[in-house]
Amino acid sequence: MKQFKVYNTLSMNLSNVFIGLTENHKLGLAILIIVFLFSMVVFAIIYGVLLRKKNLMTEKKRLENSNIFCNCILNLRTQTVKIIKLNNLDDIQTIPFLDFLTNFSVKEQNDLKLWFESLVVEKDPCENKKVFLATEVIYSTNKKNIKYEKTTLTVNQIDRAANVIYFIKEPQKYIPCQIKNKKLLKNKRNNEIFLNYSQIKTLFESNELKKGSCYFIKLISKNDTFCSFNEKYIFYKIMNNFFKYYEESNIYVLFNEENPLDILIFDSKGYTEYQLANRVANIYNKIQRMCDVDGFSRFFSIVAISTKCEDLPHEFDKSYGLINKYCSSMIEEKKCVEYLNAKSNDFKALQDTYSNEVSYIINNGLVNIYFDPVIKITPKRVTIFGYNYTPILSGDSKFVDFEEFKKYANKFDYRKECYSFVIRKTISNFINQKNNASYRLFSLIDLQDVPYANRLFPHISDLKDCNLILTFKNNEFIDNENDEEYIHVIKNAQTKGYDCALYRNINDYDLKESTYKLFNYFLFNLENYKELKSNSREFVKVHCLLEKFVKFNKPIICVNVYNWAVMELLIKCGITYFSSPNVFSSSTLLSPLDKKTLRKFNSIVKE
User: How far apart are CA 403 and CA 211, in angstroms?
Assistant: First the structure.
């Protein structure tokens, strides 16, 4: 009660003071209060703006950091991941493996975990091509809005002894994600974008794309280059570049596991011929620019075509084959981009004429096999060591030579038939004619033909009597010497009883010594060295190269030697194995050396 009286007395005193103020004093006090309140409001607004700006800058920096390359080291023993951001090498984080997985979609976390664990279980020849396309979940600062982004995780190296995986994390932010915030992105599409062959085939033949359009992008290895690329990684890079410029709502993409660099894109929306021609030109230019920047253009030729789905055959297999073959023909004609009217007479003529010609030659056996002897020189005598062979087309043909025929056979999916037909005929002729069990047959083979050879050889009778030597081209191993897939080809052939030879031109790139040690023979092509003289720069170059291979203690065979003068110079340098259609006559028969040739050799050796 006493406190109430005090409070009441104080209130009455303040009221009396306020009543006792003059009008001017009252106005001044009111203005002071208003200014104070206004200042507080302004301060609150400024503070709110600055705080929001700070949060936006923090969010922007965080999102920028999510869009950079990271080198990552996963240690499965300690269950940790070390993350090294390539834009700031001082920024190194080590986090638990489970925390790393939480950066990705819940639907993919278990698959991603199993994928990493499978990498250290057993050796895979294609392990350097392992790529996982993951959906990264990026939260904003208030955790209300969610951004989803595709990220490639690419294996760089695996240390199985330590259970450590080195990989690269790279955002591919333009590839559409199927998990989306509808309020943010306003996209209700739930179906997958990347489909396998059977899924695309079902979609195509169901007529859902009847009124749509398609684009085909093909990367083809350039001649005389064979470099190891992570083709799945290139596929995702190209698709990321594609979706950067084109909306994805109506697009389906074929992901071909066997060849990811044959990229078929369907757009369910139809376009006019003029629009398709412009769109495919833009697509080609964008992808070509990307390939230039990333260095892929040095090793690949790029072609792109567009067409209407309604112009293609209803059967997807046939349509896919026609498009693929047309792209291959564009390389020969030095074309890069084109709108294709699949009903045009030119396209049908290309398919029908050359495809039928290839089939006709194979079915009727219109190839003759010419043998070139490989001779061995010793101080006492000259003997035949074995034979090379050259296929030559017989009769009239649209093709200039066998090499052109082989290119078109590859284009029209006759590679397997072409290889099988030629090698069967060669081995049959060789076995039936040879009169010396020690004669060897040097057979030049492309790495792409090895699978056909593995399936074919067990069915060739008397092959064990052939002394077959598989001869590989030097340039096919460039950039692949650390790829166990290719080295395994050599070792596997040798375990099956075949010797392996390496065929190289003088100007080819050098491989590692460990690679050269795998081979049993070395063949050097001298067809471009016609005027070798002992004091010439070209001879010094050839001599130095041959000397490098003496240390491997394997037979060195010089092939396509131009004339006797060059051969005599090489003999004096210590070369004892030769093969040359210019010096020794080529024939469909295994012809012995004539007496004139033997006398010539004897005179050179005795000098």
Answer: 41
The CB-side HSE value for 441 (13 A sphere, CA atoms) comes to: 28
| Helix and strand counts by DSSP (H, E) for the chain | 19, 20
Report in angstroms the alpha-carbon separations of 280 from 196, 256, 287, 326: 23, 20, 11, 15
Share of the chain above pLDDT 70, in %: 84
Residue 190's pLDDT is 54
Best mean pLDDT range from 45-54, 232-241, 374-383, 484-493: 232-241
Token pair of 319 as six digits: 């349509």
Write phi, then psi, for 460 (nearest 5 degrees): -95, 115
**Residues 50, 51, 56, CA angle at the centre, nearest 5°?**
95
Question: What CA–CA distance (Å, rounded) separates 141 from 60?
Answer: 10
| CA terminus-to-terminus distance, the chain | 140
Alpha-carbon span 562 to 580, nearest angstrom: 7
pLDDT band at 2 (very low <50, low <70, confident <90, very high): very low
Q: What is the DSSP letter of 1?
A: -
Mean pLDDT of 340-363: 72
Distance of CA 380 to the CA centre of its chain: 52
Q: Are 549 and 522 in contact (CB under 8 A)?
A: yes
pTM: 0.51
- Residue 184, pLDDT score: 46
Cα separation, 415 vs 421, whole angstroms: 10
Alpha-carbon span 514 to 553, nearest angstrom: 14
Per-state percent for the chain, helix, strand, coil, to nearest 5: 45, 25, 30
Give the residue-averaged pLDDT of 516-528: 91
Spatial distance between the Cα atoms of 205 and 155, rounded to a whole number of angstroms = 37
Angle separating helix axes 355-363 and 402-411, nearest 10 degrees: 110
DSSP single-letter state for residue 223: T
* Region for 475 from its dihedrals, namely left if φ exceeds 0, alpha if ψ lies in -120 to 50, beta otherwise: alpha
Beta strands, E only, 160-258 = 164-172, 194-195, 213-221, 251-254
What are the pLDDT digits (tens) for 434-488? Answer: 888 899 999 999 888 888 888 888 888 778 788 999 999 988 887 677 777 777 8
Of 334, 122, 59, 351, give the one whose Cα is nearest residue 222. 334
Q: Are 153 and 169 in contact (CB under 8 A)?
A: yes
| Nearest Cα to Cα of residue 503 among 542, 464, 479, 473 | 473
Provide the residue type at 517 as one letter: K
Token pair belonging to 193: 């974008």
Cα–Cα dist 152/172, whole Å: 7
Among 394, 313, 403, 398, residue whose Cα is nearest residue 354: 398
- Whether 116 contacts 165, CB under 8 Å: yes
Bridge pairing between strands 382-393 and 367-377: antiparallel
Helices (DSSP H) in 67-154: which residue ranges?
A: 97-101, 106-119
Q: How far apart are CA 218 and CA 263, in angstroms?
A: 6
Do 259 and 220 form a contact (C-beta atoms < 8 A)?
Answer: no
Rounded Cα distance between 80 and 100, Å, is: 8
What's 410's DSSP letter? H
Residue that is written with structure tokens 């296929």 in the block: 391
Length of the chain: 607
* 558, amino acid identity: C
β strands within 277-397, DSSP E: 300-308, 337-339, 367-377, 382-393
